[in-house]
Amino acid sequence: MTTPLHLFNSLTRQVEQFQPVHAHEARVYSCGPTVYNYPHIGNMRAYVFADLLGRTLSWKGYKLTHIINITDVGHLTDDADAGEDKLEKAASASAQSIWDIAQHYTEAYWADVTALNIRQPAEWTIATKFVPQMIEFGQRIADRHCYELEGGLYFDTSTVADYGRLARAKTEDGEGRIEAVEGKRHAADFAIWRKTPPGESRQMEWDSPWGKGAPGWHLECSVMSAALLGLPFDIHTGGIDHREIHHPNEIAQNQAFCGSDHSGAKLWMHNNFLVERSGKMSKSSGEFLRLQLLIDKGYHPLAFRLMCLQAHYRSELEFSWEGLEAALTRLKRMLMGVAQLRSQMEELPADPDGGWTLDEARGHVGGALLPLLAEFDKAISDDLNSPLALTVFEDVLAAKKIEREDKWQMLSAMDAVLGLGVLTLDRADLRLRPKSATITEAEIEAALARRKDARAAKDFATSDALRDELSAQGVEVMDGDALGWEWKLD
Known about the structure:
Radius of gyration: 26 Å
Mean pLDDT: 93
Shape: globular
Distance between the termini: 48 Å
Structural class: alpha/beta
């Protein structure tokens, strides 16, 4: 019996059974990065969550169309409606072209996506490529829902029903992070189009019926999701911070465009924060916590993915180096189990041509594993319960008296959802050189060869001295382990 997929809808604050707008299809839009700086690991948690959602929809047999946008214009330095654009500010600070800034940080984000084994979406939508459609959208809603000020075109939030119901935070003073703009009718009103101030010019600006300028940040996602997925579509994802301002404003625009009962997406899903107590999650802190910093310290990026999956996406996740170390150790144990299984097989079974789905898995694994398959499916179908799904994966890995081919295919099927790559990684792949290490791997191997000779000659004093020298340089010697050595991470 198939367990129906249930997902938490932030709009209703309830877990609901997924019912696609179009039969057998799932259309998903995820708010992507504003490419003015490197993404920090808190940003990347949102894309691990969105990837888990997409993989689960594929697992359940839906034809997935997943869109992620790249915001290269329009996002100000906070959620205000006046001030500097993040890209314009970054370009000014570095004396570079705004287009070069956007391209550099887009490619850095894509590198993190690849490192975390996040699947490519159906399309990356670039905001600046949709500006004509944004102007047309604004023209469609301007007469009934907008008004002009000196700074641009503003959306009147009183013209749509139940504004802010997604955030459930509407007050007489308006949303806390939106600064006052002189002439606004209501504190929560927001910019659809921001005019370039008199006497100024921007690197990114366009002519519009409301003057030369740039689109408001919220307008971008409404336009791009509608253009690529149609309205309504199934699921809109983002970090929980978007639930308070950005997504309520998207919904208001969609209501203005399509009707008062039309939020754009049927389900709105948000991952909770990743918190770090030292304050280094902020991009203003200098060496903030980005994925490359984890790699420079010797942690494989998939250890961070596992760390994210160990917590439910709606739970706050505290980052610590101890927690990351524990996730890395857990990942190593998984790889050791997979390596042992691989060594017992003459030939590895191939994955299905169309990829793993629940139905494919049922057709490939033996009867002894079917209860565990049902348990895994039940966990992931329960609002993406990845912590429980991980324990099922480990139960299968530890299971005895199971046909090896069946176990391999079961693990492969489950990892198609979890995305940890444990059947293709080798444990040695996790042995990343810390940036601070002064000794090379060639020098390590040479020292180990000398130590082996000393042990063979029963010169244990030299053997111990070499081991101590390696340990002092961050190398842990593992006698009796096939890997031989690995980095000791502080």
